[in-house]
Write a structure and sequence with these properties.
With about 190 residues, the protein is of the alpha/beta class. It folds into three domains: about 35 residues, no CATH class; about 90 residues, Resolvase, N-terminal catalytic domain (Rossmann fold), CATH 3.40.50; about 40 residues. It is about 50% helix and about 15% strand. The strands form two sheets. It has a four-stranded parallel β-sheet with strand order 4-3-5-6, sandwiched between helices.
Length: about 190
């Protein structure tokens, strides 16, 4: 495939993909004499011992029905690819929460292939980090649809980020203020 197609699949710009190519970070890639960069798709060999898992996540309990549709779409995808599904992990949690119980159970199971509907179902931010680290550990993450993002989920995550930073900021100020008060009280008691 051309590098532009590879860049779209990875969710990065073409410029970033070119930098990765020149840094030697894209395996099975080569440049033709015409300057075109090609990336060979490594075929996924599925054996009975291949640990294929599905991960589905929704951000709140009101969207539980959507999770079942996610599961159905992921199962259909796996059947079409000829995968035998070992386990389906379902979770109701924010995509920014890094302490998701089912997510960590899945990662501890050392899956060969993780199938997700959209990359934001796995994590809201830092998907490329997870993807690259997982590939180094022998886990392939297959995203059925890399283009769609749910605006409502994205908005909730934005509010969560702002809230988190506000709590940290005002928490530090409050802590500093309390420390000054304690120091003042201690100084009064010594005089």
């Amino acid at each position: 495939m051309k590098l532009s197609t590879y860049a779209k699949q990875q969710g990065v710009t073409y410029t970033t993909a070119v930098k990765w190519f020149h840094a030697g970070l894209i395996p099975n890639s080569r440049q033709l004499s015409t300057g075109t960069i090609l990336v060979d798709e490594a075929p996924v060999v599925v054996t009975p011992s291949t640990n294929v898992v599905i991960y589905c996540r929704v951000s709140n309990h009101n969207r539980r029905d959507e999770m079942e549709y996610q599961v159905q779409r992921c199962e259909s995808y796996c059947v079409a690819k000829g995968y035998s599904i070992n386990k389906i992990y379902k979770e109701v949690a924010s995509g920014m929460n890094d302490n998701r119980k089912e997510f960590w159970k899945m990662m501890d199971s050392s899956p060969s292939i993780i199938v997700i509907e959209h990359k934001d179902r796995l994590t809201r931010f830092g998907f490329n980090y997870l993807d690259r680290l997982s590939s180094k550990l022998g886990t392939s993450i297959e995203v059925m649809n890399r283009d769609k993002e749910d605006d409502q989920d994205l908005l909730k995550d934005l509010v969560a980020i702002i809230t988190s930073f506000c709590c940290r900021l005002y928490g530090m100020r409050r802590g500093q203020h309390k420390a000054k008060q304690m120091k003042t009280e201690l100084m009064r008691n010594d005089i």
